[in-house]
Amino acid sequence: MTVIQLINIAIRAAIRAGEKITDIYSSVDFDIQLKEDLTPVTIADRNAHDEILRILEVSHLPVLSEEGFQSGFDERKKWKLFWLVDPLDGTKEFIKRNDEFTVNIALIRDNRPIAGVIYIPVTGELYTGIPGTGAFRLLNPEDNCTFHTMQLSGKKLPEKPKSDEFVILVSRSHMNQETESYIDELRKKHGSIQIARMGSSMKICRIAEGTANIYPKLGQTMEWDTAAGHAILKAAGKNIYLTDMKTELTYNKENLQNPHFIVI
Predict the structure, then answer these.
(1) Kind of pairing, strands 215-217 and 155-157?
(2) Looking at the whole model, is its pTM more than 0.90?
(3) Domains in the chain, please, with CATH?
(4) Per-residue pLDDT tens digits for 25-53
């Protein structure tokens, strides 16, 4: 299959997973449990995971999902092409019912993202990107949406900023002193700044579309948190770098944790 054929499968999977999540979001009981790392997981996470795996199965590629069985590094390091999935990114925001959660599906080749899809179920915003081809945003996609649909009917990213103000994005649920200090340095450099708090990979989407300038993440994240957005960013002419601002973030590491990074 070509990359476009594969991303078309991922688009369908993201939309269908979003429908599963929305069904639970409108219910009373989220069936919240704690995983071994003490992070929460809900029935929406599990249902979205199952739906994504069912649809991606046709690609015959390995899938690394936050909510699935995670193969050991000895096996994973042999994977040249695979899916990296977060079925529900922003579970804490989902539980708080603040609407700031996403479905993330990335296609990884040789440890780098080569295509990505992010879907925001509540707003109906669908983002997709293939580096070298383009990044696009479409509102309320149909179930049969494809990358070609995005190219024809979506907004090409990045869009022209509506303001000259320097906008910094930070996590709504995770903030620390190191990030505060980094923002202080940006304030000295840029003077007037705006700080916006936001959950999940929505922050990466906003950088890709050009409505924000920078997202420093000086705390813990996992590979499935960033991979889909990373592909979309690269397709929009942006990137995710380590704090040296030179080294690009990579994937399929042994421990699956991201180092500190800057989205810009």
Answers:
(1) unpaired
(2) yes
(3) 3-157 (3.30.540.10), 166-263 (3.40.190.80)
(4) 999 899 999 988 888 999 999 999 999 99
